[in-house]
Design goal:
Structural class: mainly alpha
Shape: elongated
Strand content: under 5%
CATH architecture: Up-down Bundle
Helix content: over 70%
Number of helices: 4
CATH superfamily: Fumarate reductase/succinate dehydrogenase, transmembrane subunit
Length: about 120
Amino acid sequence: MKFLMLKLEPIIWQLFGGGMMLGAFLYPAYLLVIGFTAPLGITPIEGLSYERVLGLASSIPGSVLIAATISLPLWAAAHHVRHIFIDFGGLERDGFVGLVCYGSAAVGSALAIIAVLRLHF
């Protein structure tokens, strides 16, 4: 199991980096628009109507963006949880913890992709 984790490490780091980028750049901007400027009337609320959001989610770029916005932070969280477990002395069970953490991120990502694909069919 440890050998497999070492082989997958570059892929996991790419997913982790993507999740951290989303968490650092896109989520604060989203919270600013949805949480502050829309209620204060600075941003028109009509831009967040159901029809416009469904139109974005039904397009291919919008679907990719939504799936990435859901799944990439799951991989970042799984990577953080695994390394926190290692820091607290869990190195001998790293293979099992990695399997649980990254497996749950993979299941969550698959569910996000299925949910986005259901908008098209």
